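Q: My hope is that you can spare some time for a protein that puzzles me. Underneath my words sits a plain record pairing an amino acid chain with its backbone structure tokens. Those tokens are not coordinates but codes from a learned vocabulary of shapes. Thank you; the sequence and its tokens follow:
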Amino acid sequence: AEGELARYGIPAPDRTEEYFEKEWIRSLFSAAVEQLRVQYAAHGKHVHFRLFQRYDLDDALPRPTYAELAREFAVAPTDVTNHLAAARREFRRITLELLRETTASEAEFRREARSLLGHSPQ
């Protein structure tokens, strides 16, 4: 059985819970990113989402500066700051909404939110 699990990328039984926890988090965040993308596309905020994607989601190192992003997207540096702040707030809101839908109680919701985001939701 362990060989079958390993073939599909699932770790040994003593690490299975950790594996599924990481996959659940990845799935939750992926769903939140997709909802944000769809929402921003529906409102014509493609640049806003691309800024969020380039700065917060891309794995490229070194991370671009706000000034570099402003040049790349032909916007003012203050727009980069404002668009990123708004996208992060909306991403957090969507993430918490999805989390609330998947938890059984308020206590579980708060515990998971604290674990995922570092503090309890307001």
Notes: DSSP finds six helices and no strands in the chain. The mean pLDDT is 89. The first helix runs from residue 2 to 7. The CA atoms of residues 47 and 73 lie 7 Å apart.
